[in-house]
Predict the structure.
Amino acid sequence: MFSPPRPHRDDILISVIGLLGGVVLWLLGLNMQTGRLLDAPWIALVPLVVMSVLELLRRSAPQTALVIGTLALLVDQFTVGNLATVLMFTDVMYAAVLYGTPAAARRIPVTTFLITVAVTIGFLGWFRSAEALLIGIVTGLVSFVPALTGVSVRNHRDAAETARLRADQTALLAEMDRAQAVTAERARMARELHDMVANHLSAIAIHSTAALSIDDPATSRNALGVIRENSVDGLAEMRRLIGLLRAGGADREPSTSPTLGSLDALIGQHRTNAASSGLTCTLVDSRAEPGPLPAPVELAAYRIVQESLTNALKHAAPGPVEVGLGQAEGRLTVQVTSVLGDRPGPRAPGSGAGLVGMQERVALLGGEIEAGPVANGNGTKIWRVRAELPVGEGRVKA
């Protein structure tokens, strides 16, 4: 079964105070008018009780309370009257605008204004006296002024609610931005950690396996030398990464970030690491003006070459590993090719994170990358990584 909502605590208080105040005025004989159709004093208590009951509905059913309250007020005009009844009606009128529907909040002030004007004009025509203006003023005070007050309070309440919602949305967007920034920073650190360490650890894994599997002092000595060199270089790279984390430079790379000018040293290190695997690495820089490029572009290109050489060390068959650089129409082209096929000897496992990291780097710069097997001119297949990076600063994404 349907049960009406319980009245608000404040509505109960208003109802009780209005009823008790009206009863006190009735007991004191303080009536508003005399010589009415229903002249018995007790009849004035009926509209008073009805209006006090309607105060309990001022929030839950404001428009219903207003309609019944208007009828009760009209009945009160035929009795000796009670000031408390009129005051409670003004509160019912105010509540109908404040708690009613948006359509009612728009219609009620207009309707009460027209009623006030009509009552004023009607009584002026009837009485033909300036005293009729007092009736119009009282009508406006009882109906139009409470409705206008309700509109003002409702507008302020809606504005405050809108401001609160906007503040909540702003806080939510700020939290989303913070979470995205944290995620992006973690991804950047993951790429840096993988690209810096994977190359050295792959060489260590391959040469340590060779030292354990081949019972030859010279081979073990060479393998240990490579392991030591890669351990020292990996430690230095880790220290650089730790320095980056402590600096908190989320939007800039430290001044010691590798550039394309460091590729010669990287390829030389790769030759040393891959000598036992039958890989030979060469660099072909076909750029007309091999000058400095934006720091994010140079770092991304270096990391792409570094990761590609690491993958070649893990998976490529014996043969040439070629690194090519080119620049035309505002784009830097980086290409690394290696022989596709099986090779003897120890190999390091791969996780696929390196390719994902290269794709992320290129995407952040608004470039393009492709990696996969392609046919070579002599009928064999090679593994090729080709990336195109825009060299304009304005193309770098935040």
The chain has two domains: 9-171, 261-398.
